[in-house]
Structure formats: structure tokens, C-alpha cells
Write a structure and sequence with these properties.
This protein has 11 helices and 30 strands. It is α+β, with helices and mostly antiparallel strands. The chain has 3 domains: about 160 residues, Roll (FAS1 domain), CATH 2.30.180.10; about 160 residues, Roll (FAS1 domain), CATH 2.30.180.10; about 160 residues, Jelly Rolls (Sandwich), CATH 2.60.120. Strands 10, 11, 12, 13, 14, 15, 16 and 17 form an 8-stranded mixed β-sheet that branches. Strands 2-1-7-6-5-4-3 form a 7-stranded mixed β-sheet. Strands 20-23-28-25-26 form a 5-stranded antiparallel β-sheet, with no helix packed on it. Helix 2 packs across helix 3 and helix 3 crosses helix 4. The two termini are about 30 Å apart.
């Protein structure tokens, strides 16, 4: 799936009756040493590590050579037994707090030295500062860094009004940029980044500014959903839940005549659950990842429209009164947004977000982005019984990097025998008329004949997963990203749907995303 596309994942909604959607995460390609020490904790056996033979500076070696500035960090690496690991071969980005940062961090946590922290906490702290790719400061953009840390979290970059002269990662100033070492890049920072703890509801509850919103979540029972950080589908498959919340502060409610949560309950009565659920989008969307699309919410079959201009607007539309058109919208307040939690992100909005049905808009549904599947892993037909959103017959699926090796990902059937079946549950789609196309990576080993079905009815003509093309004087090309027009749909109501594919010839199936183009009459 192309990185710029919307990532909509249908999975476990309200964790009882619906399903959640989540952003696609890149898999971390790890050396054995980092897998053992950083992801799975310490093991009895000494992990295999690859070191440079020459006296070149690696991450730990650089920090030791500059102990006048990073002695506390070196001590943390010694306590956690990660110093040698950061001297192993790799391509990493490490945000390195200096001694002053650790001094302040100890004071803030009631400690005298780093030795007073629990070892497990310090391991988490180191993992939170480390990313498994090299990222120079020129790569940074406002918002979340696309690659997660070794703790599975995102760090957020902010540029000050001074532009590139001042860059913050979370709330820490990057004081020394782009220190190149043999196994990566170090960025010196003036604060220790506190590892994320607590749920997205904890983040709301701890802020007095959101007391009405938090109380309403408790009344509706949505706190049970928002407090879940990790979901175990079975003994082998689990995932971290992710939510994006657009929330009003108490002052915003008071401007609308709502002084207490009782006033909010009185306003919406039996519709309070729908009102609150409409503020919650399944999946993790920092402001730099939001696009001009319609996003499903936890309110059943209700979507939020996002429009990007000079600001991020929600549910922008025009209303006519007395012959005059008036623009109506909610503005996301950027300065109070991108607030992180272990299982989500919080954005503040400037007015009450009422449930609203937007107009149909261009829509991408990513067929590779279902919660519970991980890049590089294969899942049998039985495995898929525990993974919400995908089912199959006579085949499993393999979540792989694209066969084109272009940085994209696809789902591929594990069987190349005629008769395989793969079915996807789709999120709510706004009522309207759409032209629909399926996108995938063509390959000569794919099936030459397949049929699509929409909600159980035949959809479109037979098509081949093998396409070819050539320029004059050039050999035929079979391996490239391609698509086929499936057909036109008339959806009479906003609801969820299913799409199924059946192979009628030997060969693999390959799936990337569905594109929906609204048709205006």
C-alpha cells in the first residue's frame, strides 16, 4: 500500500460488537542481539553480536568517548546491559539525553542518581530513545516519526517558529544534530524522553481541562475500550489497540452552555453514547498522517470528514439560510494536539463535534492493514479464524513486502491452487454511488482468472491477477503495480460490507487496496 494512502483497519470496535481499524506499521528488521535484548528481554544465552574490528566509533563508544557530556547515559547502558548491544552492527537513530537532562530527570522523579531506578524501567527508557533506521534531521517533519521506537511507540517532532533552527522531539530540544557514527546517527537532546505509560483515557483523566469529556466517557462505558492497551487474539497473536480522539475542553463546553457532565447528559439523553463514540476514530492518526478523507468512528456507521487547508477541519460543509451560504466546521487546535498515550493520540477541537453525515469522498481501504497481522508473517486458514476482518478457504495469507521490492506491502495467498477464497470485512462506507477498483502487484505466478463478490453477489467481470505491458521495442513487463476496474456500486445506506475473491485458475492472489471514486449525478 502506498504510504500516502489512508490506512483504514477494521478490527474489534468497542471490543465487543464491532471492529477496529489501525494504521499500517512497518516491521522492525532486527539483528538477533537486538531482538533478544531490546524486544524480548534478557536470555540466559549470550546473544550473537557483530562488531567492527577497526577502532571506529559506534553508538556506545561515541558516548563513552564523550563521557564529559553523556556519563549518566553510559551508566544507564551499563545497568541495562545494553552498552554492547549499541556497539553492534546496525543502522539506528538514538536520541541521547545529556548529563543535565538526566540530573533534571532524577530530580523530577525523586531520585538522586540513575542507579535508583528499576532496571526494567531503564530498559524501557533506552528502547524508547532508539529507532531501527537512520534518520537525519533533514528527514524530520512536523508530527510523528513514521518509524516506531523499540518500545513500539512513536516520537513526535515539532519545529519552532524559528523553523529548522529549533527542533523538538516530544518536549526535548535537539541540541546536537546528526552525529554520524558507524552504526547510525545520534541526536543529542536536553531532556530525557519519558516512556509512555497509561492509556488514552488516563491521559484525558489526568487533565482537569477535560473533566466533562472524561466523565461522559465513564458514563457511556467507553472507558473500558479506551483503557485496553494490548489485545490477545490467541496465544500467538496479539496487537496494541490504537485510538485517535478529538476532544473538547471544559471551556469549550461552557461556551455552549454546558457547565457540567449532567448538562451534557441532559442534552443528549439516550444519544450520549453515539455522541461520545463519534469523537473516537479507531487507529492512530497524528496530524501529519491525517488526510482529506472520511474516517470511521466508534459510533456505528458514522464517519468524520477531514479537510486539510491552512488548518485541519472536521465536517466542513455549507449551510444555506436566507439565501446565504455559511461555512460550518470544527477546527483542530494544532498547538494542543498530538498528545500521546500508550494506545492512542489526543487532538483538541475548538467546538462541539456533533454527529454528522458528510458527503461521499474518495476513499482508500487498505486490504493489508488488519489488526493482528504482522509484516513478514504467514497466517493459516485456522489462524485467520482469530483475526477479525479476514477469512479464507483453501489458503492462508502472507503479509509480505511487495514482490516489486519498492518499499510497499501486499497480502498474498499462500496457495496457488485453483479454488482459494479470501474475504475481507470492510469499514462503514457512506451511502452513495462509487466506481471501485482493486489494486495489487502483478506477477507471472499470480492467478490468471478470479471473480469478485460484493456482499455475496457477483461483482464485476472475471479478471486476471497477471497484467502485462511494454513500451515499443521493450520486452513485456509483468511485475508492476496495477489495478482493475471492479464495477459501479449504488450503496443506499451507510454500513459495513464484505468483498470476496475466488480463484478460477492456478496461481496466487495478491491484494493491496480498494479505491472508491464517488460518482456525482
Amino acid at each position: 500500500m502506498v504510504a500516502s494512502g489512508i490506512l483504514i483497519t477494521w478490527c474489534l470496535s468497542r471490543l465487543r460488537t464491532s471492529m477496529l481499524w489501525n494504521n499500517k506499521n512497518r516491521i522492525l528488521i532486527l539483528l538477533v542481539s537486538l531482538t533478544c535484548l531490546l524486544l524480548h528481554g534478557c536470555r540466559e544465552e549470550e546473544p550473537f553480536e557483530v562488531f567492527f574490528e577497526e577502532e571506529e566509533l559506534l553508538i556506545s563508544a561515541y558516548l563513552e568517548e564523550h563521557a564529559d557530556k553523556y556519563s549518566s547515559l553510559v551508566r544507564v547502558l551499563e545497568i541495562t546491559e545494553l552498552k554492547n548491544t549499541l556497539n553492534a552492527y546496525g543502522h539506528y537513530t538514538f536520541f541521547a539525553p545529556d548529563d543535565n537532562a538526566f540530573k533534571q530527570f532524577c530530580e523530577d522523579n525523586g531520585k538522586n542518581t540513575v542507579e535508583e531506578f528499576e532496571k526494567d524501567y531503564l530498559v524501557t527508557l533506552v528502547r524508547y530513545h532508539l529507532i531501527d533506521v537512520e534518520l537525519e534531521s533533514s528527514y524530520f517533519r512536523d508530527g510523528a516519526i513514521q518509524d516506531t521506537t523499540y518500545s513500539g511507540d512513536y516520537l513526535v517532532i515539532t519545529f519552532s517558529e524559528g523553523g529548522l533552527e529549533t527542533i523538538l522531539v516530544n518536549d526535548a530540544l535537539i541540541t546536537d544534530r546528526d552525529i554520524n557514527v558507524e552504526n547510525g546517527i545520534i541526536h543529542g537532546i536536553d531532556k530525557v524522553l519519558s516512556p509512555l505509560v497509561g492509556s488514552i483515557f488516563d491521559r484525558l483523566y489526568e487533565s482537569e481541562a477535560y473533566s466533562i469529556f472524561s466523565a461522559a466517557l465513564e458514563i457511556t462505558g467507553l472507558t473500558d475500550t479506551l483503557n485496553l492497551v494490548r489485545i490477545d487474539l490467541n496465544e500467538d497473536i496479539s496487537f496494541r489497540s490504537r485510538f485517535t480522539i478529538f476532544a473538547e475542553q471544559d471551556d469549550t463546553y461552557k461556551q455552549n452552555g454546558i457547565a457540567t457532565v449532567s448538562d451534557l447528559v441532559a442534552k443528549y439523553e439516550d444519544d450520549l453514547y453515539q455522541y461520545m463514540a463519534y469523537h473516537i476514530v479507531p487507529g492512530l492518526y497524528y496530524l501529519n498522517e491525517i488526510d482529506s478523507f472520511n474516517y470511521p468512528t466508534l459510533a456505528e456507521n458514522m464517519l468524520i470528514n477531514v479537510k486539510l487547508e491552512s488548518n485541519v477541519y472536521l465536517n466542513w460543509h455549507q449551510e444555506e439560510a436566507d439565501g446565504q451560504l455559511t461555512e460550518k466546521y470544527i477546527t483542530v487546535l494544532e498547538e494542543n494536539s498530538n498528545r500521546q498515550a500508550k494506545n492512542g493520540v489526543l487532538h483538541e477541537i475548538d467546538n462541539m463535534l456533533e454527529p454528522y453525515e458528510p458527503d461521499p469522498a474518495y476513499l482508500i481501504i487498505d486490504l493489508t492493514d488488519y489488526q493482528g497481522i504482522s509484516l513478514g508473517q504467514s497466517y493459516s486458514e485456522k489462524d485467520l479464524e482469530d483475526i477479525p476482518g479476514i477469512s479464507s478457504e483453501n489458503t492462508g495469507v502472507y503479509f509480505r513486502n511487495s514482490i516489486l521490492a519498492d518499499g510497499e506491502t501486499n497480502l498474498q495467498t499462500t496457495s496457488n491452487t485453483v479454488g482459494w477464497v479470501v474475504e475481507f470485512d470492510l469499514p462503514p462506507i457512506l451511502r452513495g454511488k462509487y466506481d471501485v477498483s482493486l489494486h495489487w502487484a502483478s506477477h507471472q505466478m499470480n492467478s490468471g482468472s478470479a471473480q469478485g463478490f460484493w456482499d455475496g453477489a457477483r461483482f464485476g467481470n472475471l479478471f486476471s491477477f497477471v497484467h502485462n505491458k511494454r513500451a515499443p521495442g521493450v520486452e513485456w513487463k509483468y511485475d508492476y503495480n496495477t489495478s482493475t476496474y471492479m464495477g459501479r456500486l449504488l450503496l443506499t445506506e451507510t454500513m459495513t460490507h464484505k468483498i470476496k475473491f475466488i480463484s478460477l485458475q492456478n496461481g496466487y492472489g495478491n491484494f493491496d487496496y480498494l479505491a472508491f471514486w464517488p460518482i456525482e449525478e
